[in-house]
Specification:
Length: 275
């Protein structure tokens, strides 16, 4: 189960991450991700939870206070470069530097800033729910149970639901979901892990749209949804989405190098590790 938690954390955090390469491209990416942090799917709260879980598995003598200090130092000094190094080959295949610069300019406008601010607040809630739900579902699936479907919150208006459906379709989230679940299934090894992965994949195909809608309501405004619909028409954004979906199908190819790099960083800090 500890292996499952690690795979799920890597998958949820990095499934839509994006990358950079040469110096000029790297600088353009840095400006892009500062203007559009939602595309990295990495928020401070999500990363703290994930690295804390990894530390419990990696550190021979786990100490929460030391772990928290190490996490803050790593996030501030090294994480960004480790993620970049892991996923450079994926992202440079389909996203030009001009694409990054065009979307950056758009996101620096007032509507873009608001969209990103609200989207990141939504992701904080969404990721926490997904991590908690994923662990609960895993235990239920291992025990042979069937997960309950996710219902929409009763306070969501029909007008908001209709607009969200347009946003969902415009952003091609059904394809993103399919890429994500295929990646989860491909990451599984062993009979038990395959049972969990297949069960989670089926659950996500049927319920992820409702999970996202429940998370968005109250955080993403109707103006935000309209901005997202217009954004989806940009060729530059389509390039980013396409590569993100391709990356999502193989999360361990970029997630595991980050875990390995983090292990090496911990060792350099003098932390004794479980090997």
């Amino acid at each position: 189960m500890k292996l499952f938690r690690t795979l799920l954390l890597v998958f949820c955090i990095l499934s839509s991450a994006i990358a950079f390469g040469q110096d000029s491209y790297r600088q353009s990416y840095k400006k892009f991700i500062e203007a559009c942090p939602s595309k990295s799917q990495v928020s401070a709260s999500t990363m703290r939870v994930s690295l804390s879980t990894l530390n419990q598995a990696l550190m021979k003598q786990y100490d929460k206070s030391l772990s928290d200090d190490l996490i803050e130092t790593y996030l501030n000094e090294q994480f960004f470069d480790d993620v970049a190094d892991a996923i450079i080959p994926f992202y440079q295949k389909g996203v030009s530097e001009n694409d990054l610069q065009e979307v950056t300019r758009l996101m620096l406008q007032p509507a873009g800033k608001q969209f990103q601010e609200h989207l990141m607040a939504m992701y904080d809630i969404y990721h926490e729910q997904m991590l908690e739900m994923g662990q609960q579902l895993a235990f239920k699936l291992i025990d042979g149970g069937t997960p309950d479907p996710v219902s929409l919150r009763p306070d969501i208006s029909q007008d908001y639901i209709l607009l969200f459906n347009k946003y969902y379709d415009a952003q091609n989230m059904a394809e993103s979901t399919e890429s994500m679940v295929r990646g989860l299934q491909q990451s599984a090894s062993g009979e038990q892990m395959s049972i969990v992965a297949d069960g989670l994949a089926s659950f996500l195909r049927e319920n992820l749209k409702n999970i996202m809608l429940n998370s968005c309501s109250g955080l993403l405004t109707e103006s935000d949804l309209q901005f997202g619909i217009a954004l989806s028409e940009l060729p530059a954004w389509k390039h980013i989405q396409q590569v993100s979906n391709e990356i999502s199908q193989n999360p361990l190819a970029m997630g595991m190098p980050v875990v390995v790099a983090y292990q090496g960083w911990l060792a350099k800090q003098g932390v004794e590790l479980n090997m």
